[in-house]
Amino acid sequence: MDIRDFQLERFFAAHEFEARFLLSPSDCESLSLEDLLALADSDSLKRWRQLRLGYTQSAGHPDLRAEIARLYPGASSDDVLVCAPEEGIFIAMHVLLQPGDRVVVMAPCYQSLAELPAMLGCAVDRWEVRTEGNRWTLDPDELVAALTPQTRLVIVNFPHNPTGYIPSSDLIARLVELTAARGIYIFSDEMYRFLEHCPGCRPDSLLGAHERVIALGGLSKAFGLPGLRVGWLATRDRRLLNRCAAFKDYTTICSAAPAEILAIMALRRKSEITAANRRIISVNLEACREFCRRHSSWLDWLEPDGGSTAFPRLRPPLEMDEFCDRLLQRRGVLAVSGRLFDWPGEHIRVGLGRRDLPEVLAVVAQELESSSSG
Ligand SMILES: Cc1ncc(COP(=O)(O)O)c(C=O)c1O
After folding, report:
1. Could you say which DSSP state residue 347 is in?
2. Is 334 inside a domain boundary?
3. Which end of the chain is more exposed for a tag (fewer CB within 10 A), N or C?
């Protein structure tokens, strides 16, 4: 099979575990096993101690699916299939798409969201985010223009990696209306849900919007548990979910038993865990705004609405790839250039979810200051 490298993941594979500082991680501060066990309720602690390491149920532990269903008003465990998050994208694209279909994908995007449809022989139409002042936006008229009778699927991701954009409720309503009227599926990547930056601005999951919505969720970002490899697909379309479950027999068959119990523990402590990560993000947002004010000749801050990443723009003469190279070679700072998202323009991804971001920004400032004096 001819697949293009997943540029971002290859880049992290080469550098993530050697670099001294990470400027651009997408996840939040990860929990240790000890932290999670300390938060656990007595029922899940008992399950942990008595756990047998056999195969697990292919659709996911029934109690895990029940905890996941609680995240979606009106959903039940039967609407949920547990899988690793990236696996969920792989399965859903294989099940939904045929060669010759057209797919509209929000851009820039986590590469597999666009790459898998292309690999499966679909034509990919980009629905690109724009900037308006210092915020991000999407134009619904551009979606209308991209839809054709062959369009099978629209892929969106809110809060968005890398920009942190969350659309208005009007735009979401338009997306739902346009797809419902044409019988088009929505793949809604909601990996960054629960990381909205202002209280009360968390849109409902698109899951309930119409029958042909399939939502992706997981514990990698807002819960700081990417090492569990626990995510899920959720849809009201039972036929589609059954086909996804059957496809999973060819990927992982079932999830790891310890990960499932730890996932139950974490979901039962969702409020505490996600609130702690939102607090870290809020401190880091202020540090980034201040950093960009201080270095306004080099950088434009573009305000995210949610998620654990931001995508500010470098100003000329700073050139993105060269700057990222310099940061890594001279300062040991790993920074993700917008180019790894196939995005033109001089954007850099900043990870907002880790406690050490202010320290990393101080190192980046040293490099900028040496550019000014050099
Ligand atoms: C938008 C989006 N979807 C899916 C994933 C996949 O999540 P995981 O790496 O936990 O499989 C990521 C990871 O960065 C992501 O940013």
Report:
1. B
2. yes
3. N
Q: Give domain status of residue 2, yes or no.
A: no
User: pTM for the whole thing?
Assistant: 0.97
Q: Which atom of ligand 1 is nearest to the CA of 26?
A: 14
Are 264 and 331 in the same domain? no
Alpha carbon nearest to ligand 1 atom 6, residue: 86
Question: What CATH number is associated with residue 318?
Answer: 3.90.1150.10
Q: What tens digit of pLDDT does each residue of 233-263 get?
A: 999 999 999 999 999 999 999 999 999 999 9
Residue 1 has pLDDT above 80, yes or no: no
List C-alpha distances in Å: 78 to 95, 166, 225, 230, 371: 18, 28, 24, 17, 57
Q: Which domain holds residue 362?
A: 7-32+271-373
CA angle centred on 121, ends 116 and 122, rounded to 5°: 80
What atom in ligand 1 is closest to the CA of residue 160?
A: 1
**Domain stops at, among 269, 295, 315:** 269
What spacing in Å lies between the alpha carbon of 41 and ligand 1's midpoint?
A: 28
Identify the band that residue 199 occupies on the pLDDT scale cut at 50, 70 and 90.
confident
In the predicted model, what is the mean pLDDT of the chain?
96
| Type of residue numbered 328 | L
- With a cut of 90, say whether residue 203 has pLDDT above it: no
> How many Å lie between the centroid of ligand 1 and the Cα of residue 297?
33
Total domains in the chain come to: 2
Q: Are 327 and 333 in contact (CB under 8 A)?
A: yes
Token pair for 213: 């919505």
> For the segment 61-80, what is each residue's pLDDT rounded down to a tens digit?
999 999 999 999 999 999 99
Please indicate, yes or no, whether residues 198 and 275 belong to a single structural domain of this protein: no
Looking at residue 158, which CATH number applies to its domain?
3.40.640.10
pLDDT of 202 > 90? The answer is: no
Instruction: Using the mean position of ligand 1's atoms as its centre, give its distance from the Cα of residue 85 in Å.
Output: 6
251 and 328 co-located in one domain: no
The answer to whether residue 244 is domain-embedded is: yes
| Per-residue pLDDT at 132 exceeds 60 | yes
For the CA of 229, the closest atom of ligand 1 is 10
Encoded tokens for 269:
């402590």
Residues with CB under 6 A from ligand 1: 26, 84-86, 110, 157, 161, 189, 191, 218, 220, 226
Eight-class DSSP state of 356: T
